[in-house]
Amino acid sequence: MLIRQLSTIKSETVTSYGSTKTNIQWLISKEQGAPRFAMRLFTLESGANIGIHNHPEEHEIYIVQGECDLISEDGTRRRVQATDSIYVPPNEKHGYENVGSEVLKFICVIPILKK
Fold this sequence. Notes:
115 residues; mainly beta; 9-stranded antiparallel beta sheet; 9 strands
């Protein structure tokens, strides 16, 4: 069993997909010995965004704090907030925008791809 304190995990700036004011912390990954799934914490300041993108793998997301708009490829927006759970199927284009006045935090779980 492994227990990690959030304060000890490196925070990295996210710049891919035109992201702004966004950080990621890899809570659990293959570096900690996880064979199948990685768990990440994203932190977006008010007004921050992660641009529209897609991945070959599914994503499971849990909103811990704040609210944001999930943006689909056609620009449709759906408001989500703390305690909402989200499933993003493989290859579905999606983006995020923190539309609230507080910091947005969400956990994102993804499969670890075998190479």
